[in-house]
Write a structure and sequence with these properties.
Inositol monophosphatase; metal-binding; metal ion binding; 43% helix; Fructose-1,6-Bisphosphatase, Chain A, domain 1; alpha+beta; 5 strands; two-stranded antiparallel ribbon; 106 residues; 3-stranded mixed β-sheet; magnesium; Inositol_monophosphatase-like; 19% strand
């Protein structure tokens, strides 16, 4: 049986590496569009956000997720992942890359 924290680390590191590799390939081709709230988003933001949420849901179906491109309602779960996969829109437009993933326990 794998240690819980090893599972967390493996999911986070594997996902960050896999998503990051694809985003690096796409870097420099950023075209932003405007969301309903007036902020900007790219298809890379949306793809990365969905990929990360899918991997979390597959590995930890009992965990909640709050993400930049999905609902912003705090789930009623013991664990909640907070993700902003790349902030590709702002940083991609300015040629820098930052990511944020966090997992919190209630």
């Amino acid at each position: 049986m794998t240690n819980f924290w090893d599972q967390i680390f493996n999911l986070a590191s594997t996902t960050a590496n896999d998503v990051g590799q694809q985003l690096i390939l796409d870097f420099g081709t950023v075209q932003a569009s405007e969301k309903a709230d007036g902020s900007l988003v790219t298809r890379f933001d949306q793809w990365a956000d969905q990929e990360i949420r899918t991997r979390i849901a597959t590995t930890f179906p009992e965990h909640g997720v709050i993400s930049e491109e999905a609902e912003h309602i705090f789930p009623h779960t013991d664990w909640c992942w907070v993700i902003d996969p790349l902030n590709q829109t702002f940083h991609g437009l300015w040629n820098s890359i930052l990511s944020y993933i966090s997992c919190q326990s209630s």
